[in-house]
Please model this.
Amino acid sequence: MVSHRAFEELHIPEVTRPWMESFENPNRIRLTREYLSNLGILDNQNVKSFDCKPAIREDIVRVHSPYLFDVVDELSRLGYGEVGSSSFVVKDTFKAACLSAGGAITAVNEVKKGSVETAFALIRPPGHHAGVGHCEGLCYFNNCAVAVRWLQGKRNMKRILILDLDAHACDGTSQIFYTDPTVLVLSFHEYGMEAIERGWLEEIGSGEGEGYNINVPLPFGTWGNAYRWAFEQIFPDVLRDFKSEMLVVCFGFDTHYSDPVGNMNLQAEDYAQLTRIILQLGKEVCGGKIAFILEGGYSLLALPLSIGAVVSTILDTEIKYFDKISGGEKIPKIVRDVTQEIQNIKKQYL
Ligand SMILES: [Zn+2]
Model:
């Protein structure tokens, strides 16, 4: 478990603008830690805890433009400013963003070193909407991309698969690796999000990276059953055929039915089942080297439970699910069609 107490104090966006930004706040981490602690997970003898260290400029500019790095830094010093759509800066934003990116680096580093098999980075702010030269959607630096470029630059890793399971398309991550065949980006998300009209099937990468960006857009209100069905049709084959050396999972829990931002119908037990598949495939293909990195998830009730579901599955312990609802047994035709289309596209490249 990689995290830091500072996430519970830094970067409190509602200070300046009580809007979308207020969902991404310190309570996300504080309540999750509290819940994990109550479950006994933080004291579990199989859990090692690591404090995040802030990423340094060299780490960030491997991915982002130096200008973006400086703008976030300078506006944070000023204590006020907007660096992108729904990305407001307050006085600690730069500190929190560097610590968050550093947490992602620590997670992949500990997995690469072999000190743990699986890592979970409990970090904020999220990162997957931040592109090379822009911040967006509550994201400042792209934590996962910074960690992946760090692995390639500092640890000589060649091929890495990023699996993004947030309600939103990881448009920043896709942009960063769009022409790069060494990093395959596979994103499951809902389509037709209010502001983010990206993440369509046709966005498959370009140049040498053509075929290495795979979007799985699922309709509004998709239930766990259909989501998991599509996941099992696509993810195992992609991971096996790409032969990733490590699996980096950007897990967002705004797909939960109670999330105030996302519009999907997943529940905590779905995350446990997805995690089971990920662990099994990760073992088969990349020797179990898996780093989970937190992205979104804004229901303060669902987020701790959802993360509890993932971490307890990693530890092979049981927890109680108090969010159970039933519905959505059928796989909608549109989900079958999208899945079929992706399988057809994939055949041409992998
Ligand atoms: Zn999201």
Remarks:
- The first strand starts at residue 2 and ends at 3.
- The pocket of zinc ion is lined by residues 166-168, 252, 254, 296 (CB under 6 Å).
- The chain has one domain: 2-349.
